[in-house]
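idk why but the lab printer keeps eating my pages so im just putting this in chat instead. protein + nickel (II) ion:
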Amino acid sequence: MNLIESGQRMAGELIQFRRELHRYPELSLHESETAAKVAAQLRAWGFHCKTGVGGHGIIADLQGNQPGPVIALRADMDALPIQEETGLEFASASPGIMHACGHDAHTAILLGAARLLQSQQLAGTVRFLFQAAEEINAGAKAMIADGALEGVDEIYGLHNLPTLSAGKVATRCGSLMGSVDRIEITIEGRGGHGAIPEQSIDPVVCASSIVMALQTVVSREISPFDPVVITIGSIHAGEANNVIPHRAQLTGTVRTFNPKVQERIPSQIERIVNELAASYRCKAKLSYIHQVPVLVNHDECVLHTEAVIDRMIGRQHRVEAAPTLAGEDFSVYLGQVPGCFFWLGSGPAEYAEEAFGLHHPQYMLNEDCIPLGASLLAAIAIERCK
Ligand code: NI
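predcted complex ->
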């Protein structure tokens, strides 16, 4: 029996597991029950697992009886602060919390891969990483700090994609997903009467100017061939319509697709913020917080992944992934070891591109992707351990 058929035979069990996670979602850093269910399943199958890794993460190793490489496979386990509106019978029982990114399915898929690999001859070790806190860009760093990548030669992972039909997979060499940085800007002026501005230093006008000028980084300082987004998502200043406030506070997100551009942006933003603030007689303070790097796949690992996919499901079911500036903390692992991250179609068979996207309250996942994802991850690992 091949791995696709073996995966299909486990489909019912994996889908049931996924639905249980879906019903009881947990936010980042609070995945204790989810982790307990995963560890219990792994132990029931005879795995030794290390829990409490990088928060609520889990590591389980499957050692072959021949020497060989250590191949890591990773899934994320956390949910989002979203009120579910799917009406599914196994919809979230926790108000305001939803598996709207399909990490419940990723967890079931990785469990399936672990089970499938147990019955295979391995030359090397497959390490299963069940990661917490992906949605807040914290889990991968914490897993690595707790030794998750020690001895690892390559790492692979996937994310479901509801706008791609289940049964299809999307891959891409090089950059796949954007970097994620956070900016916090405080503009200090001097408050006063709204009718007598000459006695004040107005931080609101200064902040407005900074919001507009930051867009020139995208359009005037970076090549149009390098995608960049700077979004100011919050502005807070003042309480009354006729009072000039003391200060304005802005927060924003910065996304890039080229690691060299990500390096250059902080100094460009800092220059605009400081010099513009000075021109308005304000003082500015910028905090530039690096969260995750650009997700850059390693070409050799992508070619390996593509070869396995083509052999398992046929070249006609693989497409080239479109780039996105959404972020994913799998990029942190890829900064340390070679590997490949790819998209697993999780949408309806027809008109998938019209499906609700990730993080939507009506996001739904086509569960056909679960056994397929398990079979593909298992095959990717086993082909490296021959
Ligand atoms: Ni996600």
